Amino acid sequence: MDGMKKEKTVTANSRRSFWLSFGAKSTSVFLGALVFFYILTGSFLDSGFLKRDLAEKYGRVAGATSTVLSVKFVGPPNPPVLTATPICLNYVSYVNLSWTTDDQMDYFDISRDGSPLVSGITQDFYNDYAIDILTDYVYEVTTFNIAGQATSNFASATTLDCGTPPLPDPVCEVTRFDTINLAGFVGVPATKNRSPVFYGTSNIEYAIIDVIVGGATSVLAVTSTNDNGYWTWSPITPFNYGEHTIWATVIDPNDSARRVTNSLNFKIETAPVTDDDDDDDDDAASDENADKKEEPIWVPVVPPRPVELSPEKDPIAQLSMEIKNPEKIAYPGKNLSVETKLEVMGDATGEESELYYFIVDDKYREVFRDFDKVTIDGDKLIVRELEIPGLLKPGKYKLLTSVRYRGTIITVEDDFTLKEIPLVSLGGGVTITTGQVMRNLLWVIIWCSLTLLVFLGLLSIEYWISRNAIIEITEEMLSGQRLITKRKI
Amino acid sequence: MTDNFSMLTPSVIITGITIIVTILAIIFSFGVVWRTEKELDLSYKFFLGAIIFFAVSEFLELFSFAGRIVLENFILGSRLLFAILFLAGMLIARDLLRKMDGEKGIIPDEQE
């Protein structure tokens, strides 16, 4: 064991001496390399390099002929002079604080209305953004150094109301036409679908979209964007074949002057004629069906001569419609109260027309249709109760009201929610539907049974108590026991 | 569970309390009817009838919403019956008290 210890000690000593000698050698090599570096630099680049480098590394002592020691006595700092200025910049209100400083001030604390606002800052200004507008604030700055602290004067400021920033310019884009994505599309998009869907975006939520279609078909319509500014629109009556222009005007519902119009030229193409002679009869039949299906729903007395429409021209009439049901909620099999107003611009033609009511789902699929015959001989206010089909599924729907006047289809729409008829109304708008009851039928049975059991139990207890009563109570007995008595006069 | 708790609006709570209190009133009215006789018994029978019709109207109210005209008529009918029965019970109780006051009929103290 001792032998092994000695052997270990010898090994350790030899390692230490190795590292010592290695350290000495490496130091010598490093110093040699450093001298060589300085010589090289001095010879080829800059002769004063060594002096400057040493002076920088080891202070003025290295290159100085004399040493100057300066002693600085630091006293408490002087009180800073504080200024508070309310500022509006880009509709942002804040208070700019600035104060005098000197080299004896290390850092600053700021208090507002006697409470700390910020501490430990080193610059000589501060912007206070954590403010309410049109409010008085009193500021104070305290400076610190190693010897003490000093407090500034009080500076007060009343914050400014900088108003609200102006809204961005409205945007209206038609992004898709039927199945054609319009991003990067060049030319006139065309489709064989006579009821194409237009898709668009805006930067205004719930904006009104005034739609004008001119060309082979004249349509005036109104739709709206959703909360994301997204909108879609499709004609409820198929377009005629030919070239059209659609103008979509986005109108801010809170500021009608904030509006922008975008337009799109598009074409409704006729279906290609098939060469299959064998199926002529079938084709004829199917074409007939197609024509029947796509036949405009109006049979106008006056031949349809579409009015040339464009946003620059005054509208020929204005149609407005409002669903009068509370909160625009309707129930299957119940009525939807609709108030439609038609305002005719200029002299009315007195033409016979139909005022159509369409209910469409969120994909513009028609689920209900009804109409009234109207004579357009002036402004009209039509109140109508539409009975909603009982089998219609609950969900979001649109009611479209449409009238043809002077060859132009005028359409407006309003959204409503179709809800399942509630089975139980618990008050305050809280309802339970039959579906909810059926889904929780077990719980409903348990709760109803428990309530009934409690009721019967309490009734039984009451009955048992009364049966075991000592005597039956009559008014004579109560009077006899002085429990009720003649009133004292 | 969150949905169930969100249904507990003040209106729902008040409706629930009303139904519970009405059921208790029915039970205790039965107790009084079973214990008493004659005019006091009769007046409480009317009160019991009134409270039962009140409970019926409250119960039907749960199943009514805008558009159910038939139920609305039943609710109104129940409330009318409640008011009539309550008035009848009150008149009989008043009659009893008038008798005890000696204003009319037999004075209980004199029978003793």
In short:
The complex is a heterodimer of chains A (489) and B (112). Chain A starts with a helix and ends in a 9-residue tail after the last helix.
List keywords for this structure.
heterodimer, A: 489 residues, alpha+beta, Immunoglobulin-like, Coagulation Factor XIII, Chain A, domain 1, 5 domains, 10-stranded mixed beta sheet, 5-stranded antiparallel beta sheet, 7 helices, 23% helix, B: 112 residues, mainly alpha, 5 helices, elongated
Structure overview:
- The complex is a heterodimer of chains A (489) and B (112).
- Chain A has seven helices and 27 strands.
- By secondary structure, chain A is an alpha+beta fold.
- Chain A folds into five domains: 62 residues; 77 residues, Immunoglobulins (Immunoglobulin-like, Sandwich); 97 residues, chitin-binding protein cbp21 (Coagulation Factor XIII, Chain A, domain 1, Distorted Sandwich), CATH 2.70.50.50; 102 residues, Immunoglobulin-like (Sandwich); 50 residues.
- In chain A, strands 11, 13, 14, 16, 17, 19, 21, 22, 24 and 25 form a ten-stranded mixed sheet that branches.
- Chain B has one domain.
- Chain B is 82% helix and 0% strand.
- Chain B contains five helices and no strands.
- The radius of gyration of chain B is 19 Å and the shape is elongated.
- Classes of the chains: A alpha+beta (489), B mainly alpha (112).
- Chains A and B meet through β26, α6 and α7 of A and α2, α3 and α5 of B.
